[in-house]
Design a protein that fits this description.
17% helix, Glucose Permease (Domain IIA), two-stranded antiparallel sheet, 2 domains, 11 strands, alpha+beta, disordered C terminus, binds zinc ion, 2 helices, 9-stranded antiparallel beta sheet
């Protein structure tokens, strides 16, 4: 019993002392908030009719395309599709310069091949429409036409096809989530 009380006290002290752990509350809130669907197209000025549905297309190394490539001139602003917590502002070999945001419903939003980052930092809460970065060709997109690779993953890291989740009608509006 004392052991349990001590543990609770420890958790409370740690939560107050370390800002990173305070984000746990934000994470819990985000995971419990239903996603607002559809999502706006996360590249400024791109319309739904311009989108190419390339989910599942073959990629190098026996990979399948787990996302959507949204083509736009290099340097076009990338706008967060959702509110969320910026988890990663970094690089990897395939994605180049990437930003990963945890959004409502516990969905991960992955933005890749950025030419440069927006004014965002890890641990920052962003609103839908916040500039996360700019369209580019970094990572394995080097030398291809500039595009945003946009991926959506469940909390358990299962890739979801973003194409049917995106819509023009979502731009700048608080469209309520569909009833499920
Ligand atoms: Zn892609």
């Amino acid at each position: 019993m004392w052991y349990l009380a001590g543990l609770v006290l420890l958790v409370v002290v740690f939560t107050i002392s370390f800002p990173a752990l305070r984000r746990l509350r934000v994470i819990v809130r985000l995971v419990r908030t239903p996603p607002v669907l559809p999502y706006p197209i996360p590249v400024e000025g791109v319309q739904q009719r311009q989108l190419i549905h390339s989910w599942g297309a073959a990629r190098s190394g026996n990979r399948r395309h787990q996302g959507i490539d949204i083509f736009a001139p290099c340097g076009t602003p990338i706008l967060s599709a959702t509110q969320g917590l910026v988890f990663t502002v970094g690089t990897n070999s395939l994605g180049g310069q990437i930003v990963r945001v945890l959004g409502p419903g516990g969905y991960w939003h992955y933005y890749a091949h950025l030419s440069r980052y927006g004014d965002v930092q890890e641990g920052q809460l962003v609103a839908a429409g916040t500039v996360l970065g700019y369209v580019g060709d970094t990572g394995n997109a080097k030398g291809t036409p500039c595009h945003l690779h946009y991926g959506v993953y469940t909390w358990g890291n299962q890739a979801v096809d973003p194409y049917p989740l995106l819509s023009d009608s979502a731009h700048g509006r608080g469209v309520p989530p569909p009833a499920r």
